[in-house]
Structures
1.
Amino acid sequence: MSVSHSDVLIIGGGVAGLTLALTLASRYEVTLIRPAQDDQGASRWAQGGIAAVLSPADNLDAHIQDTLIAGDGLCDEDAVRFTVENGPAAIQWLIDSGVPFTPDTSPDAPFPYHLTREGGHNARRIIHADDATGKAVVETLHHNAQQHPSITQRDNLTVVDLFANQTGECNGALAVDSDGQSHTLYAHYTVLATGGASGLFQHTTTPSPNSGEGMMMAANLGASLMNLEFQQFHPTCLYDPDGPAFLISEAVRGEGGKLLNQQGERFMPSIDARAELAPRDVVARAIDAQIQAGTLGHVWLDISHLGEEALRHHFPTILAHCASRGIDITQAPIPVVPAAHYSCGGVATDLNGATEVSHLYAIGEVAYTGLHGANRMASNSLLECLVFARSCAQNLLARPTAPPAQSLGTAPLMPSTTTTPDPAALHALRQSMRASMSQHLAIVRHQEGMAALAQQLIDLTHQLHTLDPDMTHPDSRRLLHSLKLARMSVLAAQQRHESRGLHYSPDWPEKLPGARPSRLRLADLPSLAS
């Protein structure tokens, strides 16, 4: 077993983790855990862009109001205002860092970079790098982090748990490497930037989605988890049951893409005045209804009217990827289906990313800041990553210098692996969890189905304990985290007796006045029946 010490330990190397590392490295020694699968994570696959008030024709209050409307009454207005007001400076930091945003070369351009529009926004305020913004941002920041002498990146470790000292302060994390060797990572400050929980579901928009392990690690130390029932399903993921996940950016609809049903008819104008640019929960439910009424298993998204030249300019990645899957989007519509995309809930934090656990922070999709409410508006996610990473950094930079590593206390030992569960059996359990979650806790939820799901998750947990009674194998422990989070998500949904935003139940079709965000702790989870 190896032991290491650092001032700040950041778990996760997407936009939030990289931004924090680069902002802190002027003062602190930073260890950044960036597993190889981060290259397939949500940040890299974010296509559309980043929302911020950049055009002279736009204003902060308009962005705030659009966000509050999309959040369907559950946003924290202070968090929304904080995020929006700090957005332009965060974008300028990216520009100064070298991110190659797409320029606007038109003679009367109001801003040097091209701004597009997406669902829920009433102005063009999405800055982007073609249709691969996440990739451009991650690659730029990762390159900068590699050059910084105060940032140590570890790409061979998978964190399986956090640990705290006797006073309850988080002191670091326990991890394993690719050879199965254990590592104790001491840190004065620990920051979760581990992403969301889309991997709890069968169909997702990223190839290697997280399943909420970071959220559950924080809950194990006593942190609250909020709004777990609000899982966003992106309306338009490429439909290909035999191929990998691939998101079709909301910007396609922002540039005039039309949704068509099985009969080739456009259906969104009759559902919402904003048509294809309605908030994602509205569009996803409309698509789901069309799929349930038809036999294709998908709907169509037609952008062919833009023409090949415009498509190559605006959507080169989507054009090339669809071509590689046998779809010429200049001539034919794209088959699309909703897929799990973003977790609006997560670890409760303040505006500096601080959790209820001392010395533990959370930023990015793993966190609940109050920005998104019951539904995230398009392209506010990378904005949140940037703003809260920078806010967290400023908070940590203002704190006293970290004490010597020896004062951190003693970490619990990683249990020795006495059981090696069958990998195929573990995979089967995870797939069963994902299929059950997609059946009963996706776009439309029924009380009867959620009750059945709660029992199914208990049964799967018992099966996991049978496979690995001591929970010593890292894959077992990570699956246990996911099963616990799935159970907490079901509990949150069962307790919300209304339909709001991303939570829609025909059993409770109306909105309740005075509804509030949900808050759960691990102790609220019913004990496993024997």
2.
Amino acid sequence: VIRFSFLCASSQPFQVFQITETGLMKFHKVKNVFEQEGFSRQKRGYRNINDIEVNMSDPLFTKQWYLINTGQADGTPGLDLNVAEAWQLGYTGKGVTIAIMDDGIDYLHPDLASNYNADASYDFSSNDPFPFPRYTDDWFNSHGTRCAGEVSAAANNNICGVGVAYNSKVAGIRMLDQPFMTDIIEASSISHMPQVIDIYSASWGPTDDGKTVDGPRELTLQAMADGVNKGRGGKGSIYVWASGDGGSYDDCNCDGYASSMWTISINSAINDGRTALYDESCSSTLASTFSNGRKRNPEAGVATTDLYGNCTLRHSGTSAAAPEAAGVFALALEANPNLTWRDMQHLSVLTSKRNQLHDEVHQWRRNGVGLEFNHLFGYGVLDAGGMVKMAKEWKTVPERFHCVAGSVQEPHKIQSGNKLVLAIDTEACQGKDNFVRYLEHVQAVVTVNASRRGDLNINMTSPMGTKSILLSRRPRDDDSKVGFDKWPFMTTHTWGEDPRGTWVLEVGFQGEEPQRGVLKEWTLMLHGTQSAPYIDQIVRDYQSKLAMSKKEELEEELDEAVERSLKSLLSKNN
């Protein structure tokens, strides 16, 4: 029996008739009747969480929701790193070494021992080759061991959980556990065995107290520069940095490690897609992974290895986010060992997903070439499956150029209630050898003093209309003397854009008390390439989507108009 609905101009507009195949043939306008066979079609890119077949014997594997999120611990199904797809493609981190720069690693742990790279490890706190954590009664020095398990915990050994790149090698660089840090310890750690270590994971930085402005010193800066230029046989060391745990009281653009162009700054989301309460937001964050949830569910934390052969469900913070990213990058490096440090940044921008991430304060937006970003999450959550697939076919990005686009040197006063608005018109060094046509990083080097530094707010808008929040209010920062001295505020939000045109800087105060200040310098630094074919394709796709969206809007308007006319007609007939 076949059911048909006919629209009739009568007091009963919708009538249903049941007609057999033979009866249907009796209608004079019906020429043929064919029985249709049903078959399957599937949405491409859609992943049913129940169809993922990954079997691990490790007892905590089912609790590692950031690997495969089935909704455990009140999470959102499907909101994870999509490692299952990368694993099923055969990528598990084999041949890649990740260094955990931290308070040491329990390299005797049965879930880490088989993947521990002793030759690439060192203890810069004690100056010996054995980076074992110093014992404390409260297990304070468990940080590095927990991070190491996220990356390289062995699979199918019935111990704890599974690392994102469970066949990778992990090196321990113990450098955090001493009364104070020195430039030479940081520099030595960051430059340790750069031809053996592929990825350096750092879950530390300046104090997250909402009033510190600090970054790498001279030796460490030189070590980073040498790493990206000479590490891995010239392909560049990959530095992964946690964006910071200062929450809404801080801004990670005040952290010179997380906001460096040479690092990949990673923020975190919780298992239902919201921001963690400790997340710092800033325009330098490139992408996100996961950390513990807001709810007091004991299984909402990050499951990983712990000191002295133990396991834990309570690893947390953006400390947990950076090692997960390092693991995803290890999968990509196995898929394509020729990736440069910049290739990894481009892949992060292009393959990270909005998924179901949402922030109560900052909305998702698109930049001038259509790339979707968020002030807190960067370009979204890392997608391991998407990244390894793109990495396999990836061609090394073109040469990178640097252009000083312009500078404002004369002093300008800032007062509460009035925004200071400055503009720089630039051709982005067009006609010169260092012309930048497609942006990667943009830096606004600013010197500014204020009666209360924490009330300063700085925004910058690109010629293609993308607004970056370079500095948000930091209510705990009472500084009135130091200010910012040639501080390089960085944004990744204009990635792929054409920098030629007018850049606008807005500086003002937010807060209850009136403040005053002086901006002494703003220098605009552009970093990028002269060619980037994939950007042109993204722009075409974006414009096509916009056109389709407008077409759909017109069709919806037309449908609504037809519906209104139809209702009016039926009303008259009634």
3.
Amino acid sequence: MRLHTLFSVLFGCYGLVSGRVFSRNFQLHEARDAAPSGFVLSGPADSDATIRLRIALVQNNVDGLVDALYSVSDPTSESYGQHLSRDEVASFVAPASESTSAVQAWLNENGLNADVLSPGGDWLGVDVPSSTANDLLSANFSVFTHEQTGLQTIRTLAYSIPAELTAHIDFVHPTTTFPSGTGHAPVFVSSTSTSTSPVQRSDNTSAVCGSGNMPVTPWCLQYIYNIPSDPANSTSNGIAVTAYGGAIPQESDLQRFLTEYRPDMSNSTTFTFQSVNGGNSTSNNSQLNVEANLDVQYAIGLATGVPVTFLSVGGEFDDALLDTANYLLSLESPPPVVATSYGDNENAISQKLAYNLCNAYAQLGARGVSVIFASGDGGVSGNKNSECTTFVPTFPSGCPYVTSVGATTLLPNEQAAAFSSGGFSNYWPQPSYQSAAVSAFLTQLGGNSSGLYNASGRAFPDVAAYGTLYDIYNSRAALEVSGTSAAVPTVASIVALLNDRLLTAGRATLGWLNPWLYGAASGAFASVTAGNNLACSGGTTGFYATSGWDPITGLGTPDFDKLLTAAGL
């Protein structure tokens, strides 16, 4: 800390000598002791290397935004379903005029002009050489290399801002948040279980789906969750499937998938492609495209007739999450369901950035959008961090304004998939909508795993669906894949089909789901009482599924007909 303070003073003096305008009164804003595990310092960043700085201004009324979100999302509220417009939502997060003026003046004094990146004006962006970024933020931007993958990134372990701007600037990105060195999409793994007490089904699931670890198809999922196959009717409905890292679905694979598994649909049914921030439009990387093919094939194959938009978002993952949210918020009518199969460990993202992203999801929820994320595929180790001793929550699943989806395995008697991530956030407290359900679980848990998780944190996942051995087509070949990423398009499709019934009846879309899920809709889920997600301490610690809510499968697996009734239809 002393070295950083000295570094700040030296840069303040440099500003005077060079004749450029810098504040001499820098104040440390964010810092970390060291780079994340796996990253090593390779050396200083090239002075001419361009950094896209994103400056988050202090939002003027986040509490008002959250109050409005609950008001339009809680079925017991008189304002339920009265979702806000783009401008109404933007007014809650728009910075005070003095904040915008002060920050723009600071940038202009340094010869910089920023772009406005968000509808509310709370995000500014400016491209600068790393040398300018160092001067501007009294920082030391350097190149860090991930030893396992060779991934290189430019980051700083600390940065400061002028003291007079601390009331106006929330944080600056990218600075102390590092990209993941291991990727973000869930790994496609199969699951085995030795549990002897699964939930029993008294139906013909085995005849339709097979039993045990059998490949899963759309008609199997339609059968076990009562998902209708008749086409949707509303023209204002839709699902946005987001993708990162260059993954692209192949239309030829989708055509083969529909021909084999949905012969009642036209095999020319396709998706709308949308590039955000330089997202790929083509990709020849077969392994990379698996995730995109899985998500699109099951979104189209289950949400019959619902328009699907595929968002290919460029840039590093954390940047891409910001760009995705701001793009969707800029639309006059964003798709009512947004499905994402990607995530990261919560502790890999700075708390300020995580809070800001979570506020963006609150904005989408207030506008009537259901934001759905996979819980992750590392059990209680988060994003596949097998060396953990304490449990690792994932992001964005820990954000209370998204719906987190876990996974089950084995038919006909579903049980929790061992890879299904779940637990308790260290960033967000437990929201009131889930307090009763989580309290019941903690009472059953007793003192087991005490000290390994934050019992007062936001608990996840919220719900689950089957997540193992999904049949897909990839590079014209049949493939079976598993993960919470498989469960996401299944849940998203169910929500989209519920929205279709609501819109056809002249009602509003479901929007932010969680108050409804834990309230009126809680009885529409089949509790999963077998399986575990042991993953830390060499795979010996974790949670076990139980009746009611649990941190592997949430409230359980859905039944479309019961959810329809819970929605008042």
4.
Amino acid sequence: MDRRTGETSAGANGAAEVPVPDLDAFAQNMSRLVEEYGKVTAAYLKPIERGEAKGGQADEASEMVKTLGRVAEKWVSDPRKIIEAQASLTGDFLTLWSTMLKRAGGEEAKPVIEPDKRDARFADPDWSAHPMFDFVKQAYLIGTRWAESMVDRAEDLDPHTREKARFYVKQIASALSPSNFVATNPELLRETLQQNGENLVRGMKMLAEDIEAGRGELKIRQSDPGAFQIGVNIASTPGKVVWRNDIMELIQYAPATETVLKRPLLIVPPWINKFYILDLNAEKSFIRWCVAQGLTVFCISWVNPDERHAGKDFESYMREGVFAALEAIERATGETKVSAIGYCVGGTLLGVTLAYMAAVGDKRIESATFFTTQVDFAQAGELSVFVDEEQIRAVEEQMTKSGYLDGARMAGAFNMLRPNDLIWSYAVNNYLKGKAPTPFDLLYWNSDSTRMPAANHSFYLRNCYLENKLSKGEMVVGGQRLDLKKVAIPIYNLATREDHIAPARSVFTGSQCFGGPVDYIVAGSGHIAGVVNPPGKVKYQYWTGGPARGTYEDWIAAAQEHPGSWWPHWFSWVEAQAPKRVKARVPGAGKLPALADAPGTYVLKKA
């Protein structure tokens, strides 16, 4: 066969045919690959040579080694159990070898282990059709299952260490998957031979660009960064910035109806990410939809902090964020009463603010909605693996040097919760297949990370995740001891069923902390997709069942399932509380002049 023709050789056992590469072109591309690798090295070394390298990786690696070392100690203390564990692993591999021999002899052989049907890593037919790749896949799955069982079966291991160990095993297993390497991934091998290695050259070029963009650290692109422009085709709902201070801009959105509900709506988004998760494209924008229903919407856009904001703590965000917004809304509309929404940590801040307001008799917020928010952290999500005294001290030491936590650290933590989907699938697609990721507004937002002020982040980690003071009535803010039971206003508390960050069970427990009526609602999907679920898509469902009483399991078993978006259900709840309407308000037409067009200037600053 002519090696220049691109013809393929027949595969075995139903496996795909193997492309025959052009060896001259392949050799040339390997030479180009070495050149591109040199650029990768230069991009990595440049910040080190300039003394600008970021710290923290050594602390993280040390924590992983210590955690897995504690698991190993539990097994080493009982040699008999080590022998049993080794025998179990050896037995599985002998069974696998036996099935492979049967298959080689032409017999039918049931797999020893199969991947989850939702695991996209092994979707290519050759993972099952080709004996070699099938063996590699099953061997990997057996080893992964065994490593996970070693953590689960380790005796006398405290729950936090066990959760951390599970987390680190998941990271290691995800990184070592045979799907991540050209030689052990049939799809990658075919593409590399078919393209004469050109895919690897393109991938190495993108790798250098992404390390350059991360200033010495790999910042994996998850979407086409050139496909979106903030204020043009994302975060484009019309409005004006009507107030600005050191930590936030307040956006008032332009009306889309002749009349609006008299009571304005204030949205308090998380500062861990930028606010426009609630204002993606026109079809997905929660803010645009709210405006279309006749709500006067105000939304906080938090500053992307730097060293000047190091001392801004939770009280600062309450006073200069929520309280400043309430004062600005009164000046803009004449209204002293508002409804408020808090999302994720923005919801935690709103909960803290409501407890403070209850303590001092401030009644400006008449109803509150929480999106995937925790106020009780006893059953916190997977992010709790990053929180213990040693890890918090390490983070605080890093923040002391800069005054903030780098946005890439938090973004990396979120991605590590789903490493196969949010890290390795893109690493394979970008750097091994050499394909640029497709435009996706949600993932563009996900990569648009923000920093966190040192004082704020330290307070949050210690008072919420580590010590759970808010739900215990022990948190002190502004000289007031906070008691959520004194919060008697109506609350709409939205959880999402597959949330890894604010689990539905944790939000259910938090609902019981308040002293007033709480409508607990569960939406389908997870932390983001369950919230950004517009009525036009009819993608996910939601469940209603009244107050959060008893156990979460009993509540969800008895709850009524509804198809489609929860957004109309929420609006009916808001409208029923204060149905009076007034003439639509134009941003900048009142006592507060417009300072800039929405989405403002703070949102444009990159981390």
